[in-house]
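Same chain as my last thread, 94 residues:
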Amino acid sequence: LPFWSPPQFLLALIPFSLLPYTLSWIAFCGLSLAAYAGATRRLLEPRAPLLPILAAPGAMSNFLIGPIGLVLAGLLSGALACLEKRPWLAGALF
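reply #2:
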Protein backbone atom coordinates (compact mmCIF):
# COMPACT_ATOMS: atom_id res chain seq x y z
CA LEU A 1 0.00 0.00 0.00
CA PRO A 2 1.23 3.55 -0.61
CA PHE A 3 2.43 5.59 2.36
CA TRP A 4 -0.05 8.50 2.61
CA SER A 5 1.17 9.92 5.92
CA PRO A 6 3.26 13.11 6.05
CA PRO A 7 7.03 12.76 6.53
CA GLN A 8 6.81 14.14 10.09
CA PHE A 9 4.87 11.03 11.05
CA LEU A 10 8.04 8.99 10.59
CA LEU A 11 9.51 10.69 13.67
CA ALA A 12 6.79 9.10 15.80
CA LEU A 13 7.61 5.70 14.31
CA ILE A 14 11.30 5.71 15.27
CA PRO A 15 10.78 3.87 18.60
CA PHE A 16 8.77 1.17 16.82
CA SER A 17 11.53 0.63 14.26
CA LEU A 18 13.78 -0.75 17.00
CA LEU A 19 11.42 -3.70 17.60
CA PRO A 20 10.86 -6.75 15.38
CA TYR A 21 8.10 -6.20 12.81
CA THR A 22 5.37 -8.30 14.45
CA LEU A 23 5.99 -6.88 17.90
CA SER A 24 6.14 -3.37 16.45
CA TRP A 25 2.79 -3.83 14.67
CA ILE A 26 1.15 -5.16 17.83
CA ALA A 27 2.58 -2.33 19.96
CA PHE A 28 1.56 0.40 17.52
CA CYS A 29 -1.94 -1.01 17.05
CA GLY A 30 -2.37 -1.43 20.80
CA LEU A 31 -1.19 2.08 21.62
CA SER A 32 -3.29 3.67 18.89
CA LEU A 33 -6.37 1.70 20.00
CA ALA A 34 -5.77 2.76 23.62
CA ALA A 35 -5.40 6.42 22.60
CA TYR A 36 -8.56 6.24 20.48
CA ALA A 37 -10.62 4.48 23.17
CA GLY A 38 -9.44 6.74 25.99
CA ALA A 39 -10.02 9.99 24.13
CA THR A 40 -13.37 8.91 22.70
CA ARG A 41 -14.55 7.67 26.09
CA ARG A 42 -13.57 10.98 27.69
CA LEU A 43 -15.33 12.90 24.93
CA LEU A 44 -18.59 10.96 25.29
CA GLU A 45 -18.77 10.62 29.07
CA PRO A 46 -16.50 9.12 31.73
CA ARG A 47 -18.56 5.96 32.18
CA ALA A 48 -19.28 5.23 28.52
CA PRO A 49 -19.06 1.50 27.74
CA LEU A 50 -15.85 0.53 25.95
CA LEU A 51 -17.19 -2.32 23.85
CA PRO A 52 -19.15 -0.16 21.35
CA ILE A 53 -16.16 2.18 21.05
CA LEU A 54 -13.74 -0.66 20.37
CA ALA A 55 -16.12 -2.58 18.10
CA ALA A 56 -16.76 0.32 15.73
CA PRO A 57 -16.30 -0.82 12.12
CA GLY A 58 -13.85 1.97 11.42
CA ALA A 59 -11.71 0.97 14.37
CA MET A 60 -11.57 -2.65 13.31
CA SER A 61 -10.76 -1.90 9.67
CA ASN A 62 -7.74 0.17 10.72
CA PHE A 63 -5.92 -2.99 11.78
CA LEU A 64 -6.15 -4.32 8.23
CA ILE A 65 -5.13 -1.23 6.28
CA GLY A 66 -3.00 0.63 8.81
CA PRO A 67 -3.85 2.11 12.20
CA ILE A 68 -3.14 5.78 11.45
CA GLY A 69 -6.90 6.43 11.47
CA LEU A 70 -7.08 5.47 15.13
CA VAL A 71 -4.26 7.86 15.96
CA LEU A 72 -6.05 10.70 14.17
CA ALA A 73 -9.39 9.84 15.78
CA GLY A 74 -7.72 9.79 19.20
CA LEU A 75 -6.07 13.17 18.58
CA LEU A 76 -9.30 14.78 17.37
CA SER A 77 -11.39 13.28 20.18
CA GLY A 78 -8.83 14.40 22.74
CA ALA A 79 -8.80 17.90 21.26
CA LEU A 80 -12.58 18.15 21.40
CA ALA A 81 -12.62 16.86 24.99
CA CYS A 82 -10.05 19.50 26.08
CA LEU A 83 -11.51 22.39 24.09
CA GLU A 84 -13.34 24.20 26.92
CA LYS A 85 -11.03 23.62 29.89
CA ARG A 86 -7.59 23.60 28.22
CA PRO A 87 -7.73 25.36 24.85
CA TRP A 88 -3.93 25.42 24.46
CA LEU A 89 -3.79 21.61 24.71
CA ALA A 90 -6.70 21.28 22.28
CA GLY A 91 -4.82 23.48 19.82
CA ALA A 92 -1.73 21.30 20.13
CA LEU A 93 -3.80 18.17 19.55
CA PHE A 94 -5.52 19.70 16.53
